[in-house]
Amino acid sequence: MAELINGKEIAGQIRDEVKGTVAALSVRGIRVTLAVVLVGEDPASQVYVRNKEKACEYCGIVSRRITLPEQTPQEELLKVVKDLNEDPSVNGILVQLPLPRHLDADEVIRAISPLKDVDGFHPQSVGALSIGLPGFTSCTPAGIIELLHRSGIKTDGRECVIVGRSNIVGKPMGMLMLRENATVTIAHSHTKNLQEVTRRADILITAIGKPKFFTRDYVKEGACVIDCGMDRDENGKLCGDVDFADAEPVAGAITPVPGGVGPMTVAMLMKNCVDSIVLQRS
Ligand code: GUN
User: Quick check: 227 and 2 in contact, CB under 8 A?
Assistant: First the structure.
C-alpha cells in the first residue's frame, strides 16, 4: 500500500506558519494585503475567490476584492491593475482567471508589478524562476515541492516525469524539479509511447485534466505519484488524472483527489503574500 500524501494537513501547517509570520509582522506594524480582482460572474471563479478570501481571513491577511462587471473594457481593467501597483498598502495582486473572452489575459498579467505578482504568472517571475533569481513562483508547483519536502520524498538525482506543459503547472514544475536536482522530462499530448516514459519516473506528476487517465500501467512500482488533476468522473464526482484505486497499490506514495495538491495552491498563495513583504523591502 502506498503512503498517502495528505495535502489538506500539510496545507494546514503552511497556513498556520503564515498566520504566525503575519502576526509577527503585525507586531512590527506591518500589514499584509492581497487585492483580488474578479471580472464577471463565473460561478467557479466566485468559489475560488471566496476560498482565497477565507484563507486570508484565517491567516490575518487583509483581502480586498475588486469586482468588475463582465463587460469591463481592457483599458479599464489595466487602469485598475495600475492603481493597485501604485497603492503602497497593497502587497499582492491577483486577477482571477479565466477572464471574459473579450479581454486579453496576457496583457493584464504583464501589467501586474512583478513585485506584487503573487500568482507568479508574470513573464519576469517565470524568467526569474528559470535562472534562479528571487521572484514569485506559481502556487500549484510551489505547493508540490512543499508536499515532497514535507513527506520526506527525495528528489536529488531521481527521474521526474511531468505530464502536461501548461504555463501554470507543467513548465514551472519542470524548473522547480531541476532546482531540486531531479532529472526532468516533460511529456505532453504529442509524446510518443507515454507509458514507456511515465514508467521511468521515480516521481510522476500529472497535470492533463483527463479523469482517471493514468492507470497502474503508467506507474513504476514504488513511484511517488502527484496528481494535479481536478476532474469529474462519469458520475460527476471529483477525481484526478490518476485512477487512484488502480494505481495506488503499485505506487510508493500518492496524493488523493480531493485532499492532495488542491489545498496546497491556496496555502502557497498565502505564503507568496507574506513573501511579497520581503521582496518589496529588498
Ligand atoms: N483560476 C484558476 N486557478 C487560478 C489561479 O491560481 N490564479 C488565478 N489568478 N486564477 C485562477
Answer: no
Separation of 207 CA from ligand 1 center, angstroms?
A: 15
Establish whether residue 276 lines the binding site of ligand 1, counting it when its CB lies within 6 angstroms of any ligand atom. Answer: no
Neighbour tally for 138: CB within 10 Å: 26
Q: Is 25 in the pocket of ligand 1 (CB under 6 A)?
A: no
265 Cα–ligand 1 center, Å = 9
Per-residue pLDDT of the chain (282 residues; tens, 9 = 90+): 899 999 999 999 999 999 999 999 999 999 999 999 999 999 999 999 999 999 999 999 999 999 999 999 999 999 999 999 999 999 999 999 999 999 999 999 999 999 999 999 999 999 999 999 999 999 999 999 999 999 999 999 999 999 999 999 999 999 999 999 999 999 999 999 999 999 999 999 999 999 999 999 999 999 999 999 999 999 999 999 999 999 999 999 999 999 999 999 999 999 999 999 999 988
The x, y and z cell numbers of residue 114, run together, are 512583478
Can you tell me which atom of ligand 1 is nearest the CA of 95? 9
Whether the link from the prior residue into 88 is cis, omega within 30° of 0, is no
Catalytically active residues are: 52, 96, 119
How close are the terminal C-alpha atoms of the chain, in Å?
47
